[in-house]
Amino acid sequence: MRRAACGCKGRSTVGDEELTTVASLSPQQWEQAHATPGRVQKLRLICKAIRTRGLAPSLRSQAWPMLLGCYAPDETPAVRRAANDLAQQELALLLQQAAAPDSHTSFDLSSGGETWEQNVRRIATDVSRTDCGPSEDTTAEERDAISVRLTRILTAYAYSDPAVGYCQGMSDILSPFLVVFPDSDALAYMCFSALMTKIRQNFLEGQPGVHTSIQHIGILLKAVDRKLWRQIDVLDMSTGVFAFRMLVCQFRRELMFGDIFDFWERLWAAERLADCQLKEHCVAALLRLHRKQIMRLRSPEDFIQFVNKDIVPIDGPATVNAAYKLWKQSGRQPPPQAAGTRWTRLSKAEVLSAKKPDSLMVQAEAVGKEVVA
Fold it and tell me: 10-29, pLDDT tens digit by residue?
C-alpha cells in the first residue's frame, strides 16, 4: 500500500522504520518564520518542519531557492530580485554565445574531447524522452513548450561548464524545476545550477563523485551494521552498482514524478540541518530499512531484482527520516563530498569564458547592494 499523500495525516511503514506524517508546512506558518517580508528569521525551525512534515506546494517557488543556497535566509526582497535578474541575464548570454558558431571552438578545446555538436545532439535525444509528469494531463502544445524550456536551460548549463557539458540524467533532474517555476526559466536555471554545483563530481569523466559516495556508503554500513554490510559483500554488491542511478539522478527515477518534490525538499532541509550532503546516508538507510529481506537474499541477481521490484519506488519521507537518524548515529560526520558552496551569479561586467566555468559567477549580494543603493 502506498503512503498517504503529503499534506494528509497518516502513517508510512517501510521495513523496520515507521514515520508518522502530519500536515505539511502551511503558508501561514511559513510567514510566521519571517522577521520581515522576505527575510527568514527561524531557518533551522523551518528546515526541521520541512524535513519532518514536508512543504505546501504553493511555497516551493519561495523555499527551493533558499534550501539550495541561491538565497541567504536574511536577504531582502530587493537582493533576491537582483539575483533573479542576474540569472536571467546569465541565461540569455549563455544561450547567445552557444548559438554563435565561432564560440564552439573554445568549448571543444575545454570539453575533454567532445564537440559542442555532440552535446547538442545528446540534449535533443534526452529531452524527447524526459518524464515531465503524467502525459494524460499534458497537451501536445504544453509538451512542446516544456521541451523548449528543457532544451534552453540544458544548453545554457552545458555551455557554461565544458568539462561536464551535458550528461544523461540531467534532463530528469531539471524537469521538476520547470513545474516549480512554470513562468521563470531564470529561476529554474538558477536552482538547477545550484543543485549541479553540489553534485557536479558525479558527471565528470570517470564519475569520481559517485565512486566516492559508494565508498562512503560502505564506511557508513560497516560502522552501524557490519552484518548487513557483510551480506552485501557476500552478494557481490559492495561495488554499489545498484546505487549508481540513485546517486547520479538524485533518486529521481526511484520515485514517481509527483513524489520527487516532497522527497527533495525534505532531503535539502535535512542537509541544511546537517550541513552536509545526505544522499549516501539515504542509500545506506534504504538498505537498513529493508534489512530483513536483504539478509534472506542468495545471489546478486536476487539483490538487483529486489531493489528494482521491492525497494523502488522508495518511500521518500521514511527514507529521509532514516537517513537523518543515520547521520546522527554515525557521529554527525559529513561525507567526503561537502554540501557545496553557495551558488553565485554572473556580474553585469563579467565576460563569459567557456574555458573557465567558475568565472561565470560572482556574489549576488554586491549586485543587490547596487540595486538597493
Answer: 333 333 333 334 689 999 88
Strand partners, 14: 17
The x, y and z cell numbers of residue 302, run together, are 536476487
CA 315 to CA 57: how far, in whole Å? 18
- In the block, cell 559483500 appears at 233
Start-to-end CA distance of the chain, whole Å, equals: 56
At residue 358, the pLDDT reads 35
pLDDT of residue 151: 98
User: Of 65, 88, 337, which Cα lies nearest the Cα of 200?
Assistant: 337
**Euclidean distance between CA atoms 40 and 48, whole angstroms:** 14
Per-residue b or e along 331-370, where b marks 16 or more CB atoms closer than 10 Å to that residue's CB:
eeeebebebbeebbbbbeeeebebeebeebbbebeebbee
CA gap 145, 126 in Å, rounded: 15
What residues in the chain have per-residue pLDDT under 50?
A: 1-21, 337-373
Please tell me the distance from the alpha carbon of residue 156 to that of residue 291, in angstroms, as a whole number. 43
What pTM did the predictor assign?
A: 0.84
Alpha-carbon distances, residue 217 vs 131, 222, 264 (angstroms): 28, 9, 19
Cis peptide before 134 (omega within 30 of 0): no
Task: Tell the residue number behind the cell numbers 527520516, with chain if given.
Answer: 321
**Residue 104 in grid coordinates:** 564552439
CB 271 within 8 A of CB 321: no
Contact indicator for 199, 271 with CB cutoff of 8 Å: no
Classified as helix, coil or strand, 12 is: strand
Longest dimension (CA), the chain: 68
Is the separation of the CB atoms in 251 and 260 below 8 Å?
yes
Could you tell me which residues come within 8 angstroms of residue 87 by beta carbon, excluding any fewer than 6 positions away? 186, 187, 189, 190, 345
133 vs 27: CA distance, rounded Å = 25
One DSSP character per residue, 343-371 reads P-B--SSPPP-TT-GGGG-B-HHHHHHHH
Rounded distance between C-alpha atoms, residue 94 and residue 104, angstroms: 12
Cα separation, 200 vs 208, in Å, equals: 10
